[in-house]
Amino acid sequence: MFPVIIGFAILVFLYILLVSEYYHRTVAAGLSASLTLLALILMGFRDFLAILEGIDVDTIILLMSMMTMVTIMAESNLFTYIAVKLIGKTHDNPFALIFILGIVTAIISGYIDNVTTVVLMTPIILDIARRVRVDPRPLLLAIVVESNIGGTATLIGDPPNILIGSAADLGFNDFLLNLGPIVGVDMIVAVVILKLMYRGWFDEWKKRIRYYRLTTDIRVDRPLMVKSIIAFTITIILFLLEDIIGYPPAIPAIIGAGLLLATASREVSIHKALEGVEWTTLVFFIFMFIVIRGIELLGVMDFIANSIAAFHVSKYLLIIIIVWVSALLSALVDNIPFVMSMIPVIKQLNTIMGITNPVLYWALSLGGCLGGNGTLVGASANIVVASIAEKNGYNISFKYYFKRGMPVMIATVILATIYLLLFY
Question: Is the pTM higher than 0.70?
């Protein structure tokens, strides 16, 4: 029990640092990773390779490759072109803009990795905000929360769903038909909540847009744009073939980045392309992976999973427990190790209670994926957007995100819980 207490203490310490903002979040994660490693060494742990295996290299390479691609694509003014067209269509109705961006992001996230989706959408939003001279953070939060919600609807939309689908023999259509309806409702509810939170921002938009001159003449580098679109299309096709061929998400990103770097080398140098990589973000993820893997080795995840299994309750109460424990913990730690720990527990619960349908797996998926909206570190997409915003002069702190993300999480998880109780 002592290692579990130490694991929880490290986790609490990490979140105190993040909330207080005494250190930059990457420094806070680095200090927590150091304490985690020291705790494991002092307790006699010697399998250090097991700790390093906790670093999700696939995620790191995916981020680096997609950031490189986006940097090159931005040089062609492709994102500026899209931004100007969006402003032209929605300049008198900012809610239409935030709704379109949010719903499109959610739909794309059902078929492409959430991180990839937000990396592509963020430059468009920053360009829109720069032109109208408004704070981009409401739009950025819209795409973040919608990416996490949209990814819940499909087998390939979020990594926990892949794990659940494999363990429970559930296919793409199983997820889409069973989770698609409630995800669709949650997508709309999230946008409405953000509209209520940002009433002042919508008023500011309407004031600023009066002085915005609608521009139709956008200078673009057409050869570079064509190369970018071709490379990006190849990457998207390869993303969609992941489930069939069986490679990890980093593979399409590497192929796309490599092709674009080579074909666009005359227009954009390798040094310029790599300037767009958010190295601070990548280091943050490496430290966080070590922390999460460390507290998993200290027994924190097993303790939580076994504690849930110890409850001898009805199916309906069990659904509520799994949804909410998954959501709250996924807002605090990476949902992948938690889902991995919970899958064998749910298998056992299904056997003991004679549950023949996959409702407990749906509860785990909805809680684990929707919970990522609760805090800044609840999902990889949140951190990526916050880091890009910071580089462009806009601070999305832990407290700023928490005040807006947690209400969205609570509302969407409540609806998900009601949905499961009514229809399963």
Answer: yes
Contact between 162 and 370 under an 8 Å Cβ cutoff? The reply is no
Residue 48 reports pLDDT greater than 90: no
| Burial class (CB within 10 angstroms; exposed 0-12, middle 13-18, buried 19+) of 49 | exposed
Residue 149 dihedral angles phi and psi, to the nearest 5°: -70, -50
Q: Average pLDDT in the 21-35 region?
A: 89
- Whose tokens are 């939580």? That residue is 304
Q: Locate 60 and state its tokens.
A: 């790191």
What are 276's two structure tokens?
A: 């767009």
Q: Which residue has the tokens 């899958």?
A: 343
Dist. CA 69–CA 115, nearest whole Å? 13
DSSP 209: G
Could you tell me which residue, 299 or 19, shows the higher pLDDT? 299
pLDDT digits (tens, 9 = 90+) for 243-253: 678 787 788 88
Tell whether the model's pLDDT for residue 216 goes beyond 60: no
CA 302 to chain centre: 24
Instruction: Write out pLDDT tens, residues 231-277.
Output: 988 988 887 787 678 787 788 889 999 999 999 888 888 888 888 78
Task: Tell me which amino acid residue 108 is.
Answer: I
360 closest CA partner among 344, 379, 378, 373: 344
Residue 279 CB coordination number (10 Å): 12
Write the DSSP string, 237-306. HHHHTHHHH---THHHHHHHHHHHHHHTTTTS-HHHHHTTS-HHHHHHHHHHHHHHHHHHHTTHHHHHHH
| The pair of three-digit structure tokens given for residue 365, joined into one six-digit string | 């998926």
DSSP H or E run through 379:
none
- Taking alpha carbons only, the member of 365, 377, 375 closest to residue 413 is 365
Q: What is the DSSP string of 80-132?
A: HHHHHHHHHHHTT-HHHHHHHHHHHHHHHHTTS-HHHHHHHHHHHHHHHHHHH
For residue 84, the Cα-to-chain-centroid distance in whole angstroms is 26
Choose among 71, 30, 40: nearest CA to 261.
Answer: 71
Helices (H), 133-268: 137-150, 159-168, 172-197, 199-208, 222-240, 242-245, 250-263
pLDDT band at 217 (very low <50, low <70, confident <90, very high): low
* pLDDT tens per residue across span 161-193: 877 887 788 877 888 899 999 999 999 999 999
* Residue 97 and residue 90 in contact, taking contact as beta carbons nearer than 8 Å: yes
pLDDT band at 406 (very low <50, low <70, confident <90, very high): very high
